[in-house]
Amino acid sequence: MTDVPSTRGAEVGRRIGVGLMYGLWKPRVLGSWRVPAAGPVILAVNHAHNIDGPMVMGVAPRPTHFLIKKEAFVGPLDPFLTGIGQVKVDRHSTDRTAIARALGVLEQGGVLGIFPEGTRGEGDFASIRAGLAYFAVRGGAPIVPVAVLGSSDRPGRLIKALPPLRSRVDVVFGDPFDAGDGSGRRTRKALDEATARIQKQLTAHLENARRLTGR
Question: Which interval of the chain is the signal sequence (predicted)?
Answer without folding.
Answer: none
